[in-house]
Amino acid sequence: MQSLSIIGFGTFGQFIAPYLVPHFHVFAWSRSNYESQALSLHVHWSALDEALQKEIIILCTNISFFEDFLKAHSHAVNPHAIVVDVASVKLKPVELMLKYLPATCEIVGTHPLFGPQSGKNGIEGLNFVVCPVRTSKMDCIVRFASEQLKLNVLLRTAEEHDKEMAYVQGLTHFIARALSAMDVKEFEMKTRAYERLLDVKNFLGGDSWELFTSIENDNPFAIHIREQFKVELQNLEQKLTGN
Length: 243
Ligand code: NAP
Known about the structure:
binds NADP nicotinamide-adenine-dinucleotide phosphate, 48% helix, 16% strand
């Protein structure tokens, strides 16, 4: 079995661990101490230097911490490791991994389009975006994700990913936050469309502020989609009121 470490054992790190444990010797490190959670998930809690020596390293920290982390610790990374990130944007982490990781490391950007909420009944069939950056093991990675984890693998460049995600996440999470702030409610007389609107609010409106700001601010295309949306809202209002 290959050794794999999860760097950053927050929500997503802990969520994904059980899917990896049957296939790898899984180790984890995080800024905070999650040793008991790691033990209950059959994950070895380890020191950072040890975790960075594994054959596969999955970076599960917030993107805001990426640059400082890579700057401080890249020298300790196993030079033959496959380093994978899971961030919800792709251009920025890929650029930082290329900039700071040893030139001999393999680098793969990924974006699992699921989390504890959408994956609460399992992850089979869910979308998993893979951006090959610098790797000779693409076939193995895609085979593992599709055959072992049964994910629907979508191969994209980091730019293609961020352009689509500016709509899929940037626009949707923006609307969800506004719906949450308005506190739109459940009504007995609801329509299917209104149920969907409530779903948007309930699924996304409660995500952490850090995840929200990353989706909106770390994706260079998101601001244009938000601007377009706000212009169209104003156009509609003008048409309705004649002002
Ligand atoms: P989270 O629960 O807030 O966890 C964030 C992780 O980053 C924690 O391990 C935290 O460490 C670490 N971290 C944050 N700031 C840090 C700092 N200044 N120094 C050191 N460590 C720091 O967020 P998450 O949902 O797991 O998201 C982690 C990554 O997964 C993000 O890139 C996100 O885009 C991606 N992702 C999340 C989901 C999801 O549904 N949650 C889905 C797909 C992808 P400590 O907890 O040890 O302090």
